[in-house]
Amino acid sequence: MTTAVLPKIRELKPGFGAEVLGVDVAHADNDTIDGVVATFHKHGAVVLRDQKMTPPDLLRFISRFGEPEIHTLVENCLPGFPNIYVLSNRIVDGKPIGAHNDGIGWHTDMSYQAEPVMMTMLYAVEVPAEGSDTLLADCVAAWNALPPERQAQLRNLKLHHSWEHFMRTREYNRQEDLDPKLLAQNPDVIHPLVREHPADGRLALWPSTGTVKEVVGMPNPQGLELLDELIDFVTQDQFVYRHKWRAGDLLMWDNRCTLHTGTLYDDKKYIREMHRLWVKGDRPY
Length: 285
What we know:
Blueprint: E1 8-13, E2 16-21, H1 30-43, E3 45-48, H2 55-63, E4 77-78, E5 81-88, E6 91-92, E7 95-96, E8 119-126, E9 134-138, H3 139-145, H4 148-154, E10 158-161, H5 163-169, H6 180-185, E11 189-192, E12 194-196, E13 203-205, E14 212-215, H7 222-234, E15 240-243, E16 250-254, E17 258-262, E18 273-279
Parallel strand pairs: 2-3
Antiparallel strand pairs: 1-2, 3-16, 4-5, 5-18, 6-7, 8-16, 8-18, 9-15, 9-17, 10-11, 10-14, 12-13
């Protein structure tokens, strides 16, 4: 039996996120890593800088958070590691080594599944000198900032999420000709607009762009206009942490209580390579 050793931290922004200090993840024991896990569940996002991680190191680390998820588009995974998805504009032997401009637009990962991923982890292998920041929105703070009457209006609304809709309408990496097997594996789902965190019951406003076709029971365009209004509210500067990448950074966020987006960079001037891992989640409630 292990006992979590809570690390030294500093907040990423007031009331949200934590930078973990003094932990060398690749050589840390399980008690130390479990302390990072406990910090993550409390703070919504965790950053560890100056790490040197091999693919096996990444898998060992993320496995302390839960079961690693297999990625839907296996062609972008690191060879031999189906849990590690490559985000990059690098071309090798005339072929891209990963997905480019993936994750642009405010969203929460795999919200089109019945059990969306609980956590997303990014490890920075090579980063541009400028651009490519990752932004995280604190959906708990956004919910708490709403007046009680507005909370009451939104509390029981549900959203219709669709992988097919997402793939056919996304701005980058759009796919019109979808694999029937993948369509069968990713049927449409209904999720709550307001999500309760299982760790402590805190509530989060949980909209998302890209995957949502409608607010259930509300005709479009009114439903999608409401969604846009809520996304604008959640992503105000007061609720957002902007992560400026350095090589060796590990950034993890809790998809149950945040939204995130990538940002663009000069992909003709710079090379970016990130390794993305996910942890399986549970059904939102």
